């Protein structure tokens, strides 16, 4: 039995549910008898334990299970009778003053909101496009060369035509000993032996690299180094240290020539340089296409968030906040970090969770109203697209189709693309060219 629905706020509702105590007792007794058939106790054969002993051992657990079942069923029945779309889980609390022989509870919960999507024909969405030219292919080849760099010791006369005694310069790999002190006292992390790094890569602070440039093997230099205020080492952040470095080894970088051997190292069996460039272009175009899709999808999602009107259930935000925190914890643990005692305050994830839930409700409304669900043909085409970059495409198809969760991830991706296509078809969309480096971000700068 349930009372009328009380409105407590925009989305918050309350139901009072009640059922006879005798129903609970009858179900508890029924389950105890079932439990007794297999119960064991010292001095009794299996199934011959007295019911009172079974009740003493299992009664509280069974009573709790029955009560949860009764309350859950009563709440679901009441929600269905009142056509309520419950968001999240209800908060169930015993209600005082219940009639004798009755168990009464208040169920407080939120409902899904009404989602109003504005006139999409008036929405402005700016998309991006970018082309892969010979310049981008050349840059990629240089990146691939740098990834295959090897180093040779710089001799006394110097390699690659520098003449004279070798000195450290940008691009060289140096191996140094260093020790740092503040006010004459060494500090943790300020000392190392046989520490190697490449000059010009930015791994060390600028003052450190500047002091190393020009040194010869065996030479030392003492210099001041001011740590930035936001330096990750809090003990030295904002302070000035005195460092002494000694250059122990000096090596120059040898980049491989762009020849047949280089092409073979990239998987071009016959070493054909033209084929190598074609392969690089295909891979770059696939990467560019993926990043453009991601940028354009984000632009559409942002436009939808701005044009849609809805109240977001706090229960769903709380659930997604917990989900994001757990995903972060698992990711950090997978990277080898000890997260056992690391706090994950909910407020770190709340804004992101709120936006995710808001977007999910908006997409659900759009998909339902406009039949934008992913079709089996679209899902298969998407998986086949994924498979193009793998040696055995059939294994990729098997990987996805053998697991319903993986398949659901692809379906969600296709569904989002359907929404993007639908919105762009209705909105005032414009397109602008974007530089390859800007699109690729740090990946193009490597």
UniProtKB/TrEMBL annotation:
It catalyses: [protein]-peptidylproline (omega=180) = [protein]-peptidylproline (omega=0). It is found in: Cytoplasm. One of its GO terms (biological process) is cell division. The keyword Isomerase applies. It is an enzyme of class 5 (isomerase). GO terms for cellular component: cytoplasm. Keywords: Cell cycle, Cell division, Chaperone, Cytoplasm, Isomerase, Rotamase. SUPFAM superfamilies: FKBP-like, Triger factor/SurA peptide-binding domain-like, Trigger factor ribosome-binding domain. Pfam families: FKBP_C, Trigger_C, Trigger_N. It comes from the Bacteria. Residues 171-256 form the PPIase FKBP-type domain. HAMAP family: Trigger_factor_Tig. Belongs to the FKBP-type PPIase family. Tig subfamily. Involved in protein export. Acts as a chaperone by maintaining the newly synthesized protein in an open conformation. Functions as a peptidyl-prolyl cis-trans isomerase. Consists of 3 domains; the N-terminus binds the ribosome, the middle domain has PPIase activity, while the C-terminus has intrinsic chaperone activity on its own. PANTHER family: TRIGGER FACTOR CHAPERONE AND PEPTIDYL-PROLYL CIS/TRANS ISOMERASE, TRIGGER FACTOR-LIKE PROTEIN TIG, CHLOROPLASTIC. This is Trigger factor. It comes from Pseudoduganella violacea.
